[in-house]
Amino acid sequence: MNDDVRNLVLGVVAAGISAALGWIARTYLWKRKLRRKQAFFGLPENSESLLVVNRDPAAAEPAVHRIDVFALLELSALVKDCGAHVQVVTQDTVHQGFGERTEFCLGGPASNRRMTAHMAAMLPGVRVNVDPEPGPDRGAFQIGSERYRMEPGVTEYVLLARLTAGDRRETRPVFLFCGQRAVTNQAATRYLARNHERLARKYGSGPFVLLLKVVNSQAYGPDVVELVGDVTRTAQAPLPAAAKPSSHRAS
To answer: Which of 27, 141, 142, 231 could form a disulfide with 127 if both were Cys (CB 3.0 to 4.6 A apart)?
Structure first.
């Protein structure tokens, strides 16, 4: 074997080794990223999850709002990416506790009784005005002493929360998407899909409650979202009986 042939063979072998090492490194990084995503959502391979859908309050018969269906599709894609399975159930057919399966609960207390139960148990510092009569406080959030009113299509709010039933590591989380309108529910699911890596780095497997503001949804739909703040501590503390809320409205 002359020098040219030997150099050619060595080059092919080196290229093959480099390609194999690159493939191994990419696979390792992909699996590590997947494990972090599975840990954040509490969705190990082949695990089961629960997706609790609300009802459309404007419909005469039980139905899901068209925009909420889009939110459900985005959540289903997240579950599928983790290699897990999802069971879709309506808010009035769930009669079980939480912590055994990851749960995604969609919709405000006016349209989802499961959300009402979760908020009463885990977010005592939050009140939502569910009065069906028109008025400036319809659908408003009160978080501690602060009140957040909506101006439909211009400024609307939604709570995005990751909560657990206790401190046990094996407890599966509950994700809440509690919005003032259907478009805000979808905005929260999209925000979670886009930012789950950053949220996982910041909060790990711990709880968080974020208040998001959806800006000009009549023009931009669920895409323009601003983080108002982390309200975890306030939301999990009992609401003072004599709290005088300060209102936040669109300017």
So the answer is: 142
User: pLDDT 10s per residue in the chain (251 long)?
Assistant: 566 666 666 666 666 676 666 666 666 565 778 889 999 999 999 999 999 988 766 555 566 778 888 898 899 999 999 999 998 888 776 667 777 889 999 998 888 889 999 999 999 999 999 887 777 888 899 999 899 999 998 999 999 999 987 655 567 899 999 999 989 999 999 999 999 999 999 998 899 999 999 999 999 999 999 999 999 999 998 876 655 555 555 43
- The answer to whether the beta carbons of residues 232 and 207 sit under 8 Å apart is yes
Which single residue is written with the structure tokens 């939502």? Answer: 128
Q: What pTM value is reported for the model?
A: 0.82
Count the neighbouring beta carbons within 10 Å of the beta carbon of residue 193.
Answer: 13
Instruction: Please check whether residue 199 is in contact with residue 131, taking contact to mean a CB–CB distance below 8 angstroms.
Output: no
The CA distance from 139 to 148, in Å, is 9
Q: Which among 60, 131, 82, 74 has a CA at the least distance from the CA of 106? A: 74
